[in-house]
Amino acid sequence: MRVGLQIPSFTTPEGPGALRGRLADVARRAEEAGFESLWVMDHFFQIEFVGPAEQEMLEGYSTLAYLAALTGRVQLGTLVTGVTYRHPGILAKTVTTLDVLSGGRAILGIGAAWYEREHRGLGVPFPSLAERFERLDETLQIVTQMWSGELKPFAGRHYQLAEPLCVPTPLSRPHPPIMIGGLGERKTLRLVAQYADACNLFDHVGPDVIRHKLEVLRRHCDELGRAYDEIERTTLSSIDLRAGGAAAAIAQLAGLADAGIQHAIVNLPDLYEGDPLDAFAREIIPAVAGV
Predict the structure, then answer these.
(1) CATH of the domain at 92
(2) Which of 209, 253, 275 is nearest to 4 (CA)?
(3) pLDDT tens for residues 207-245?
């Protein structure tokens, strides 16, 4: 099993003035510890599951660019970009820039968006769920076309691109991996089967639900003629070592592997207060590497 680190909080005990150094330390130590990927949320207000909206929140792609300059091996992505936040052509250029300047380490994490408060707060249109999924489908078509180098105009219901030029092209081949986040069986997992290189499920639903969702994904793959094993199965988990220690974390990750997960992405509530990265380096990552 591969293990990745998500950083959902930018609220440190010392305040914003220390954040630059804190993030640099986390990124370097995470890479040294053996984490395979680094992720940030693509939000502009803090989300309610983590803290009050007024807590510090950095823009995702600027943060990933900073982390790219501090690291040399880990993959870098948003978990996940809301489709409403950026025009697809600009999104393709943004991820391409990250990929080129990181040496081919970018991942496009994307989803249908959900956080209405930050949309309203910052004046970003928040269409219906059905329309957001339509926009997600078109965005996936656009980014894959732009990354292929095909220059023909794109004419969709929501987006029209007269000249979808993307130069330089990404270093990743055939393009930066696309990861779609969400549990929806009818739309989300079908889009995964159609376009994505990875899915992302929430650990909190439990192993049995994860197994079921992966079976749904397999059926979509069969219907579309896609090889199921081409898609990396990932989860997002919260692991607090203060609650159960390394043994509980190892058991949790091993359970995910048994359910079919290949890449467990974790966030650590005590990231800025304890020393969870050291525990992951010494005990947890080596223990789950072979499961």
Answers:
(1) 3.20.20.30
(2) 253
(3) 999 999 999 999 999 999 999 999 999 999 999 999 889
Alpha-carbon span 177 to 37, nearest angstrom:
12
Domain region containing 149: 2-288
Shortest CA distance to 237 belongs to which of 2, 57, 1, 5? 5
CA 273 – CA 244 distance, rounded (Å): 16
- Is 180 within 8 Å of 110 (Cβ atoms)? yes
Give the number of domains in the chain.
Answer: 1
Phi, psi of 253, deg, nearest 5: -70, -40
Distance between CA atoms of residues 83 and 92, nearest Å: 12
How far apart are alpha carbons 79 and 107 in whole angstroms? 10
Quick one: pLDDT at residue 273? 83
- What pTM was computed for the model? 0.96
| Separation between Cα atoms, residue 91 and residue 143, nearest integer Å | 8
